[in-house]
Write a structure and sequence with these properties.
- The protein is an alpha/beta fold.
- It has helices at about 5-15, 20-30, 35-50, 55-65, 75-90, 95-105, 115-125, 145-155, 160-170, 170-180, 195-205, 230-235, 245-250, 270-280, 290-305, 345-350, 355-370, 390-400, and strands at about 185-190, 210, 220, 240, 260, 285-290, 310, 325-330, 375-385, 405, 430, 440-445.
- Helix content is about 45%, strand content about 15%.
- α15 links the parallel β6 and β7.
- α1 (about 5-15) packs antiparallel against α2 (about 20-30) and α13 packs parallel to α14.
- The longest helix has 17 residues, at about 355-370.
- It starts with a helix and ends with a strand.
- The model has no long low-confidence stretch (mean pLDDT about 95).
């Protein structure tokens, strides 16, 4: 039995029971797989199955003649992993795969299900390459029901979510969005201070494919799995940070000598960008609430040799500062629906009813952040959500009750020439898969000057 496959099944069982996140379970299982090739297969299976879960469940239903919801979580996970390998990976030895899946079911103490697993997978092997069993791309995208069947099942996204996207952006863009989310993500990195050119040279020498960012001059894109190909010395020159996250921190517009607060700062990548901008004459304070995140934040800044102060605070409550900050960045906790390519498990546990509750908390945080900004200072409100309830509607709701603030424009400058591509007519950031980015949002709110 290949341990990577069993580890992937265990991750999926934990996710199915709804008590964890994929990133947490991956970190729990990965130390037991010392071989890098086993780790790569494990990650491919855990993430791939999670991305394509609806499609895989539809296939399992066809070849088992049983609703997937009726199966035990352990049996579901075994069948999903096997179905993913058969339909999405190449050069899979089919009979060995069937045998191994049966053995995994037995190892999970589901001896009575081994015959069922064997029969379903043999049916699936025989049926591969036959007539299409899943909803096909509609000939007429205006056929809403056919479009939603295709997007939600064949392209494996929750129906409630693609219903929203379809109405908002149309069929072509919605299809592109789903395909973007289901692809293995590139890795975005920042070069350590003063090492950008050296990093590019090292990547070329080590024959690692790379691409400079269109949007953030300090960012470099590596292909999925590219980080593992870097030498130990080159790895020390990079900080892994999503390109959209880097863009938000750059557009916050911190200036030399300013007082800056990064409210929900962990893991600390944005804090480092703000600290660079504020310079040695500035003061940057980084905050978060959970002890583990505060520790991670502190570790990031210490490792980078930065003097930024770290505090633990609850951003929904009055903050322990006077209105003295020139700039406050609030990257608010959100649904995460803009980052499904990197966190595919989010799409299966989020519900539409989560959005009003999240927006309520975001509005409370925004009010507290605004209270500590000096006259003429700014609050930059950001999320990694794709949904208007958490984005512009929160901003508009805040402005409706805070007449001392007005909507500003994100800080465009010559160092960010590509940023104009993701700024809307109101001056707010809306990145999307159409630009090759995850869906990030940011807006700047300016406190009016007082006499």
């Amino acid at each position: 039995m290949t341990s990577s496959r069993l580890a992937a099944v265990r991750v999926l069982i934990a996710l199915d029971k709804g008590r964890t996140t994929m990133s947490a379970e991956v970190e729990r299982e990965r130390p037991d797989l010392p071989d890098r090739r086993d780790q790569a297969l494990f990650l491919e299976l855990a993430a791939g199955v999670t991305r394509w879960r609806a499609e895989l469940d539809a296939l399992i239903g066809v070849f088992s003649n049983r609703p997937v919801e009726e199966l035990a979580p352990e049996v579901r996970a075994v069948l999903r992993v096997a179905a993913y390998q058969l339909h999405h990976l190449e050069r899979i030895p089919e009979h060995a795969l069937v045998h191994e899946s049966v053995e995994i079911a037995r190892a999970l103490r589901h001896e009575r299900a081994t015959g069922f697993v064997n029969a379903v997978l043999r049916n699936m092997v025989r049926g591969r390459g036959g007539p299409a069993k899943l909803p096909v791309r509609p000939a007429d995208p205006r056929d809403t029901e056919a479009a939603l069947d295709y997007l939600s099942v064949t392209l494996s996204h929750p129906r409630w979510l693609v219903t929203r996207w379809l109405a908002r952006v149309g069929f072509e863009a919605c299809e592109q969005w789903c395909r973007f989310n289901n692809a293995s993500p590139e890795i975005s990195v920042r070069a350590a201070d003063g090492h950008y050119d050296e990093l590019l040279q090292r990547l070329q020498r080590e024959d690692v494919e790379s691409q400079p960012s269109v949007y953030v001059p300090s960012a470099i894109r590596l292909p999925a799995g590219g980080l593992g190909r870097l030498s130990a010395e080159t790895r020390q020159l990079v900080t892994v940070q999503d390109e959209g996250s880097q863009l938000v921190a750059c557009l916050a517009g911190a200036a030399p000598g300013e007082r800056v607060l990064d409210v929900c700062a962990a893991p600390g990548g944005k804090t480092l960008i703000l600290d660079d901008a504020a310079g040695p004459g500035g003061l940057v304070i980084a905050a978060d609430i959970r002890p583990a995140r505060v520790a991670l934040l502190r570790s990031t800044l210490v490792r980078a040799g930065r003097p930024a102060r770290v505090v633990a605070l609850d951003a929904t409550q009055p903050l322990p500062f006077e209105p003295v900050f020139d700039r406050v960045l609030l990257d608010a906790p959100c649904s995460g629906l803009g980052t499904l390519r990197r966190d595919p498990d989010i799409k299966w546990h989020r519900r539409p009813e989560d959005l009003p509750s999240l927006a309520g908390g975001q509005l409370r945080m925004l009010a507290q952040a605004a209270a500590i900004v000096r006259p003429g200072g700014t609050v930059v409100y950001a999320t990694c959500s794709s949904e208007p309830e958490e984005n512009e509607r929160v901003v508009d709701a805040f402005l409706a009750v805070a007449p001392e603030f007005e909507l500003g424009r994100l800080a465009m400058h010559a160092a960010l020439p590509g940023a104009a591509l993701v700024i809307d007519p109101r001056g707010m950031l809306h990145s999307s898969p159409a630009q090759g980015l995850d869906a990030f949002f940011a807006a700047v709110l300016v406190r009016r000057e007082r006499a």
